[in-house]
Amino acid sequence: MLKLSDLIHNANIGVVDAFLNSIPKKTIEVIKSLFSWDIMESEAYFGNPLGYQGIDSAYKLASDWKCLTRVNNEGSIDSEFGQIFHKKSYETISNAMLEDIVSDYLAVGCNVEHVGEFKGGRIVYVQLSSDQLGSRLIGGHDENKGLITLINSHDGSFAFTVKLDLFRIFCSNQFSAIKKAKSNCIIRHTKSANIKLDELRNEINNLSETYNRIMLNIDLLNNVRITDASSLLHDGKTADNLRRDFFIELLQVKKQPVKEELGSFSRFNPLMVKTGLDYTTRAKNRLNALERAYNHQKQSTLGHNLWRLLNAVTFHVDHDRLCANENQRSKGYSMVGKGSELKQRAYKLLLEKAHKFNRENRAMDVTPY
């Protein structure tokens, strides 16, 4: 059985470029494109590279596979992108198809805000604004707005997804207010992809209703003080202690046994004893970084409430080098990676605490979302 490792791969990129350039391909039509390149499909082959170790080339068609390459708008192949191989059942959603979806959003009054890519183009995204998702003031002064984010992967790492993000104007933090809800459209790379893309176009207006419900929940986070949340209350603890309790719960860190060297039987056999429990150095650094994010001047205008706790997490993920380095961020850490998951977890935990307090005190008429 032919395996993925048997296909032509990046190690032979120079040879593959020459081979693929000899394959007839369709010209890419570009009409005011958001991207300067697109994905080209071609047949996948396996066998010996040209002249490899003196053996004549013997390329054979891998009938169950196809190859994706990145082609610039002028028709040249991007050798740095290399090749991505998928089974023939994998339905490619090209940049042109993504832009076709974007055009439907533009037709109903949306505007393109951001266009970008991660992992050298293996993941692409477009963010759009809309008057229906316009600026809202949290607490009367903290400006936020909704963004529709369309994300697609060419390497199959995840499905084509449309999600609603909340964007804080003051510090450019953002997080996915919904990730797996009915209003979130997820399209698998299968033969039904084109049909589902058509269905997506009929769901655009639903985002406005979703946005309004989310903002009511954000207002609730802003109205619940840290010391109000009954699930956080502990006798004799200050707000500082409660913040740290939440960060510990968020990061899911636990104290580990601390060992101390008292002496040794020999140079190679030290005598170690347990002296107690403490957090690891890495855990302490993360907890301290979240505390710094909470006290950062970008959060100085916010009250000591659950909304500020959420902004501390998003600020930490989006801007703190301790959280992720540049290489991790180039792969989409904050938008599609572990950072995005951490922000989503913080939002979920804080909403649970806010709604628990709200049920006990009936402070606001708001439905959990």
Write structural notes for this entry.
It is a single chain. The protein is of the alpha+beta class and 369 residues long. The protein is 32% helix and 25% strand. Strands 4, 5, 6, 7, 8, 9 and 10 form a 7-stranded antiparallel sheet that branches. Strand 11 (256-266) and strand 12 form a beta hairpin. Helix 5 packs across helix 6, helix 6 (281-295) crosses helix 7 and helix 7 (306-319) packs antiparallel against helix 9. The chain is flat, with a radius of gyration of 26 Å. The two termini are 48 Å apart.
Which structural category fits the helices and strands? alpha+beta
Q: What is the first-to-last residue Cα distance?
A: 48 Å
Q: Beta fraction of the residues? A: 25-35%
Oligomer: single chain
**For the residues shown, what is the average pLDDT?**
77
Q: Say how many strands there are.
A: 12
Please outline the major beta sheet.
7 strands, antiparallel
Could you tell me the radius of gyration in angstroms? 26 Å
Q: Globular, elongated, flat, extended or rod-shaped: what is the shape?
A: flat
Low-confidence segments: 9-31, 179-184
Order of helices and strands: HEEEHEEEEEEEHHHEEHHHH
Q: Total number of helical segments? A: 9
Portion of residues within helices: 25-40%
